[in-house]
# Entry
Amino acid sequence: MPEAGRSGPRIGLYPGTFDPVTNGHLDVIGRAARLLDRLVVGVAMNAGKGPLFPLEERVELVRAEMAAVSGRTGTPIEVQPFGGLLMHFAQAIGASVIVRGLRAVSDFDYEFAMAGMNYRLDAGIETVFLMASERHQFIQSRFVKEIALLGGDIASFVPPLTLQRTRALLARTEDGG
# Structure
């Protein structure tokens, strides 16, 4: 179990469902990567949220974006699926930091409570909050999904591959396939 103040590489974990991955997620990932020696993006199974994309495709979509982010920041970034308790996953990968993005004050109550619970589970893993950049503060995967399902344009909210895959998935659904 990591200890507070330990030396060695700063490994961070940015967890989420990423259904779909948004430009807001990519903003936080890029900013977090500049602060860390290595970043793991953990894609949660989280079937309870009724994901639009299966886990394997969400992992693939996030991975597709990471080479560019890693190239800009110089930080190695890997993408791994996970299930179960976040803190167990963080311990397994040797993370000393959990990165959480905040969009608005409404996110804070939930994130504050989660950070407190995680601290009780492992005080050696710090939670760091990064505010979303101004142009991404309103983007939420839940809204992006809803807009897409209702036939709206999500091009300004998601990266191009995610846009293409979302459109293809919805076309298959409409065709009954």
